[in-house]
Every structure is written in structure tokens, then in C-alpha cells.
Design goal:
310 residues, alpha/beta, TIM Barrel, eight-stranded parallel beta sheet, 13 helices, 13% strand, binds dihydroflavine-adenine dinucleotide
């Protein structure tokens, strides 16, 4: 119930304007968000790389409603890719970027998908110059077909563009089968949006779906990216990798910045590839609400940090 309220609040513009006035340095925000500036993001990525982890950087923003903002988000990605490359962090994809198509124009009416494709293509050009990769985040289920269509277009020129599939969607096992081929990079996550039961599993069925999808991806020829903090699923991923004779480096674990850092480090110390999703920027509201929905225990800390004068 609380999860649904938080996810509904994630889409509310007046709550967003009120809450986003909170400085990013405050408690719970700081836990999940690297900072507001590219410099903050590059610093956090350098620290992660220094401890044997890799990263995927997210310039926060979603549901862009005008073309100028969509262009500005594209330019922000180009700028941060240059900064990461200058810092020597992008070679071999050690630090890549994650992009939400709604941030680069997908929601801009009839031409939205075309605009998002053009902007994502520009970001891929910058990523190629920096010798790294791009992964397309997945948003609510109304965008899934459009996002997979943009992915197919981008992969004509940039076969390394990664997709995200959400195990809570009933369609996802089929999408995993479609995307399990050689060269395909697929991040499998549970899914973070407020979806109707007609399209999404609930409760334990989400984990069961995750298991089925993971079996398809690990048994396929692509590069599975196991995005979860769930200890049972992390163990299962390791077992499936062994069963399919996958060496470390032929798949990877992914976790969010600020969530289970000791587990991230444990896996990295075992020689596994661990990629941390690092969000930065001023538009942190929707992202933070989804993190609070996953962990409502953090809500009290967040409300207290907003109310304090520090
Ligand atoms: P679950 O929520 O069951 O958590 C398992 C355990 O992890 C918890 O018991 C707790 O210990 C810890 N934990 C999880 N979330 C926490 C939090 N916020 N704070 C503190 N502890 C927490 N979703 C989406 O719809 N589209 C996308 O593109 C992405 N992209 C993405 C990238 C990466 C790298 C990750 C890790 C996740 C995503 N997600 C996502 C989010 C994903 O769908 C899901 O909501 C979260 O990962 C939480 O699900 P878990 O699998 O971790 O399980």
C-alpha cells in the first residue's frame, strides 16, 4: 500500500517541486544520489573504479515535456562522457552511461520516439568516441515497445547498446528469449514502477519470473547483467553461471549506488564484474521516490532530514 502511494507520488509535479527544494546533501538523498554536478559523478565513479568496481552513470531526469530540455539532457550526457574519458575512466566500458528515453524526448507527442532515437544516437556517438557503452533504462510498461524499437534501431550502428528488461512484466520472459542472442547486453531487474496487475506480476511471482528470465539469459549467448540486491537471486546467478560454464566477465552483477555496498565489494573481491548505477543531477525526485518505495523504512529518515534546518 505504502509502496503504491510512494510510486504515485513519484509522478506528482507539485510534490516534486516541494521536495526537490531539499538540498541533495541531506541524509537519504545523499545516500542514493552522487551529487548534482558532473564533477560529483566523476569523483564517485573514480572511487568505485579504485575499489575494483565499474559503474553506469545516470544523468537524472525523466518525462521531459519540451524539446529544449530533451536537447539539454543529450548535451549533459555528451559533456559527462567527455569528462569521464578525460579522467581515464571509460576505456573498455569501465564506466558507461544509462539513459532514460523519456528524458531525451520519448514523451514529446507523435514525434517523441523519433526525437528520442536521434538524441540517443548522438549519445552513442559520444560513447563510442570515449570507448564505452550505453544502456537504455526501462520505464513504465506503456513505453516498453517504443524503447525496444529504439534499441533495435540503435543496435544497427552500435551493437553494444544494452537493454533493460523488468521481471515483473508478464511479457518479459518472451523478451528475454528475443534478446538472448550473441552480442546482446541485457540488464534484468525486478521493475520499479506502479504497474497494473493486468500487465505485471505481484509479490513472490516477481521473484519466480526473475528466476525464469535469468535462466533464459544465462543459458543464452548474450551478456546478462544481473541487477538485483536480493541475496537469493545473486546466489542463483552464480550457480547458473557455473552451470552454463560462464567465466567471470561473461556476465556481470549490478547494484544501485548506496545499496548493499559491502555486498558489491565482496563480489568484486571475488573477481566478479560489479557495476554500480550512479545517478547524479538536480532532478532526483522520481528516482528517490522509487528507492523509498523499495525500502519504506527510509521514509522516516527522509521526512526528518527535510524538516531539519541543517
Ligand atoms: P528487493 O527490492 O526485494 O530488495 C532486496 C534487498 O535489497 C532488500 O531486502 C534490501 O536489503 C536491499 N534493497 C533493495 N532496494 C533497496 C533500497 N532502495 N534501499 C536499501 N536497500 C535496498 N528498474 C526499472 O524499472 N527500470 C530500470 O531501468 C532499472 N534499472 C536498474 C539498474 C540497476 C543497476 C539496479 C540494481 C536496479 C534497477 N532498477 C530498474 C530497479 C529494480 O527494478 C528494483 O526496483 C530494485 O533493484 C530493487 O529490487 P531488488 O531486486 O534489489 O529486490
Amino acid at each position: 500500500m505504502l509502496r503504491q502511494v510512494l510510486l504515485q507520488a513519484a509522478g506528482s509535479t507539485w510534490v516534486r517541486d516541494l521536495v526537490q527544494a531539499t538540498p541533495v546533501t541531506r541524509g537519504v538523498v545523499r545516500r542514493y544520489v552522487a551529487g548534482t554536478e558532473p564533477f560529483d559523478a566523476v569523483t564517485v565513479c573514480a572511487d568505485l573504479v579504485g575499489t575494483g568496481r565499474t559503474a553506469t552513470l545516470d544523468h537524472l531526469g525523466e518525462d521531459t515535456t519540451d524539446l529544449a530540455t530533451a536537447r539539454a539532457v543529450r548535451d549533459a550526457y555528451r559533456q559527462v562522457l567527455t569528462a569521464l574519458s578525460d579522467a581515464g575512466l571509460t576505456d573498455g566500458g569501465r564506466v558507461e552511461v544509462s539513459v532514460k528515453l523519456s528524458a531525451v524526448g520519448q514523451a514529446l507527442g507523435r514525434d517523441g520516439e523519433k526525437i528520442a532515437l536521434e538524441h540517443a544516437h548522438d549519445i552513442c556517438v559520444a560513447a563510442a568516441e570515449a570507448q564505452t557503452t550505453v544502456t537504455l533504462d526501462m520505464e513504465d510498461h506503456t513505453t516498453t515497445d517504443s524503447t525496444l524499437s529504439v534499441l533495435r534501431e540503435l543496435r544497427q550502428d552500435f551493437p553494444w547498446v544494452g537493454a533493460v528488461l523488468q521481471a515483473y512484466l508478464r511479457r518479459t520472459e518472451g523478451d528475454c528469449a528475443d534478446l538472448a542472442g550473441a552480442g546482446s547486453r541485457v540488464r534484468l531487474c525486478k521493475g520499479a514502477y506502479n504497474e497494473p496487475a493486468s500487465v505485471a506480476h505481484r509479490g513472490n511471482d516477481v521473484e519466480l519470473s526473475y528466476v525464469r528470465c535469468l535462466k533464459v539469459l544465462m543459458g543464452g549467448e548474450g551478456y546478462p547483467m544481473v541487477a538485483t540486491h536480493d541475496p537469493r537471486l545473486i546466489d542463483l546467478a552464480g550457480a547458473l553461471a557455473s552451470r552454463h560454464h560462464r567465466a567471470p566477465g561473461s556476465y556481470e552483477y549490478q547494484m544501485l549506488y548506496g545499496v548493499r555496498p559491502a555486498e558489491q565489494q565482496r563480489l568484486a573481491d571475488l573477481g566478479e564484474t560489479v557495476r554500480v548505477y550512479v545517478p547524479y543531477g538536480t532532478q532526483w525526485y522520481g528516482y528517490l521516490m522509487r528507492r523509498l518505495a523499495e525500502r519504506p523504512a527510509n521514509l522516516a529518515f527522509f521526512v526528518r532530514s527535510m524538516a531539519s534546518k541543517a
